[in-house]
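Holo prediction — 3,4-dihydroxybenzoic acid.
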Amino acid sequence: MMRTQVAIVGAGPAGLLLSHLLHLGGVDSIVIETRSRQEIEATIRAGVLEQGTVDLLDSSGVGERMKREGFVHEGIVLRFGGASHRIALTELTGRSIMVYAQHEVIKDLVKARLEAGGRILFEVKDTALFDLDSPSPKIRFYREGKVQEIEADFVAGCDGFHGVSRPSIPSRHRHEFTRTYPFGWFGILVEAPPSTAELIYAHHERGFALVSTRSPEIQRLYFQCDPEDEVKNWPDARIWEELHARLATREAWKLAEGRIFQRGIIAMRSFVVEPMRYGRLFLAGDAAHIVPPTGAKGLNLAVNDVRVLSQALLDFYKGKSEDALKTYSTNALKRVWRAEHFSWWMTSMLHRFHDDTPFQHRLQLAELDYVVTSKAKAITLAENYVG
Ligand code: DHB
């Protein structure tokens, strides 16, 4: 039996950052994780950080490598009808975004926690949460050949959409909202120079495509695909043919090809559970909500949850009050629903829906045209994009 103030389930961005911020405020936590350190540090996810995320990582002392190796972007490109249109994020909002991969954030946080003597228990199995509606909730799991238990004041469920935390809330205390999209994203990592200085979001008859980057040597590309499709159906030549077709433009522009060294298919859904609290269990990040990847809000939402939750927990321990804990869910959900709407909007505007009528397709094009010709609409996109 171990004892801590906050038991954190899941060593993703939410769990690790929460543990880090609590530590800075003098509050003890233990993080448990089903996967190994190597695995969490190698899992490829998105790579766009909002300015607020960058600022929080920086001000909490884990932004040094990000500032050195990340790339600041001040605009994005919308491409449709064979033409490109720049959305000037910084000009329109005064803020920018940073391209820095999620698994790099994970590496920085794990390093900071371990160097500060933080406890992260990797490769635990069969986690279960108990006594969540009592003053001393517990988590029990199997590790190093035996059953182990942590007793805490609070449990933070940061274990993602498929984790045990959310289902540990009795179903009568959960309201769940879901939308599943009839497509997925095929994502690749490529050894190639950048084809573009800024991310390109392309709407095309054949479906959506996205050109992103990771470094001067490595590029990240995505294209809309059937969610049931399999990676083995896509030999390299077919991937390039599809990307070239969807990104075709009348301008002088060429997509740089290279060796594809990572590929995978991502399902797309919108999901929210309300409230994000049950007794002494608080949910944060993907455990509580999922957005489709268009617009890259997932990691940024997790960071916002943890910003609000860490402050509420620190307030509690400073003896002030439980008020901030009581309003955590309401406060976090405001930002969650804004991002849910934005991600749904970007997804709906940019993808091809197989059952769309020609009328609906014309509406999509009219909306895209509006975004790139109306300053008001461009600001709407930009201020949501930068957070
Ligand atoms: C990336 C992912 C996104 O979902 C997005 O909207 C932009 C970029 C990325 O992985 O680089």
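READOUT: Residues 312 and 325 are 5 Å apart (CA to CA).
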